[in-house]
Amino acid sequence: MIPIPGILIAVLTFPGVIVHEAAHLLFCRLRKIAVLEVCFFRLGNPAGYVVHESIESFPAAFLVAVGPFIINSLLCIVFCFPALFPMRIFGQESFLSYFWIWLGVSIGMHAFPSTQDARGLWIQAREAAKMGSVLAVASFPIVALIYVANLLSFFWFDAIYGVALGLGLPELILRGL
Amino acid sequence: MKRLACQRCGTAFPMNGMLRAFGRTLCAQCAEGEAADRKLKKIPKGGVQQLIDPTICVKCGRDNGDADLPLLGGGVEPRPRGGIPVCPDCEKAARNIRYPAWLKISLAALLAFAALCCLMNLRFFQGYADLKDGLRRAQARDFSAAVALLDAASRSIPESRDISSLASYVRGTHLLIQDKPAEALLHLRAAAEVMTGDESVKEMILVAEVGAAFDNKDYDLMLEKSRTIMEKDPRDPSAAAGVASALACKWAVTGERRFKIEALDFLERARTLDAGRDPSFREYAARIHHRLDSRQIISREEYARKFPGGYKSKGEAR
User: pTM of the predicted model, to two decimals?
Assistant: First the structure.
């Protein structure tokens, strides 16, 4: 493992942190969950956070935890694909293209829920599944995947995901065109 | 606001300033004194807890008198389970928390900028669509449409030399099919400047050079280029027929019989290689036979006019 301080990565990919927290906030707003404190970015660990009331409903908890995964992944593709197109197809490189790719990959890298989110969701999914929640049972593979992915972030899985989503997926699409 | 008496000094203080320490309710000063008395270098985990006045809103500080406020966010880490007292206004605000203006402005600016960049990049998508369509048309041998589409793609992305060279290549091929080798040569040579390693462009240039040499009545050059094509692919019947055609021209111009003999040899070789596969070969062979029999060099159009039903060779001996 290459020992790069997390704070340095957070600084280099700060738009991803902001979008991650904004996505949490978005789903909190949608589900009317009280938010007690928000930090979009700071030089510390965690680099950003949203403190909200405890969520009793599993669907709401699932949405709030998984929200950043949806929003960050979507924005990563939206920013990377149009920037990559002229580069990969016509070899037309520009500063702007690299800016969008950096932005997209930075956002994609922060798609996975944080350790706290993943752990909380995992516990809640198990409890809800025991209570017979169909949604909890149905979403169990996703929750498990997110949990495992979060554990794998120690091995740079979040960075790999960002690069794969931002650069790999458009590459596959372009090859298919 | 609730007030509690310190269990060490007995003085009453607002509850929010007090601590639950070492099993007792103490003011901050007494808590420090208690810790010093116990000679504690480090306060044990959970040994000291700040008390929260349930009558005061933790968000805005509003005092609700003696009545407790509803608790919000039970169990939120690192707050104690049971939540925090929050007034109705603050609870409403917490449930409808607003995005900060800087975030909204930056996100809107970013999305607007992204949309603008996409708009500016639209020409790449349009150019790519035209390019793909143009190549499809070229493969279907619809060269007029292919040339128009590739030109459009080249106009959309003028900085791409690959597209302009591809457009030149297809245009050159189209002109060659239209029997305009000199014009074709210009476009094919332009294409070759970029498509340097492409063998098909080199071959097309040779074919165009043969045609241009024929038009210019430079039969030595025509023969030389035809032989080069033949060397590149000795198994190609049209290459062998091309050499025969050039030799027939030499025979027509010089009257040297060796050219005629060699032309017939190559024509025979071409016939064997073709083995009746290419229907246009028979017409080409008949034209060469006409040239060999008559020692007249006429264009394809003229030949078609003179012999609409095809030319039958007299079968003259070598």
Answer: 0.71
Contact B103 A18 (CB under 8 A): yes
The phi and psi torsions of A74 (rounded to 5 degrees) equal -65, -50
- Strands (DSSP E) contained in chain A are 35-39, 49-52
Q: What are phi and psi of B276, to 5 degrees?
A: 75, 10
pLDDT in tens, A3-30: 566 788 889 999 999 999 999 999 999 9
Which H/E stretch holds residue A147? helix A140-152
C-alpha distances out from residue A118 to A48, A85, A115, A148, B204, Å: 15, 34, 5, 9, 63
| Nearest CB neighbour to B73, from listed A25, A40, A52 | A52
Which DSSP state fits A94?
-
Tell me if B73 and A86 make a contact (CB, 8 A cut-off).
Answer: no
For residues A118, A120, A121 and A126, what is the CA-based torsion angle, rounded to 10 degrees? Answer: 120
- What are the residues facing B13 on neighbouring strands? B4
Type of residue at A60: A
Residue A146, both tokens: 């997110």
Per-residue pLDDT tens for A102-153?
999 999 999 988 877 877 888 888 888 888 888 888 887 887 887 788 778 7
Per-residue tokens: B53? 């006045």
- Interface test with chain A among B117, B120, B155, B161, by most A beta carbons within 10 Å: B117
- Does the distance separating the beta carbons of A52 and B128 come in below 8 Å? no
Please list, residue by residue across A141-168, b when 16 or more beta carbons sit within 10 angstroms of its beta carbon and e when fewer do.
eebeebbebbeebeebbbbebbbbbbbe
Cβ of B73 and A83 within 8 Å?
Answer: no
Q: Kindly report the number of other CB atoms within 10 A of residue B183's CB atom.
A: 16
Chain A interface includes B84 (CB < 8 A): yes
Residue A115 three-state SS: helix
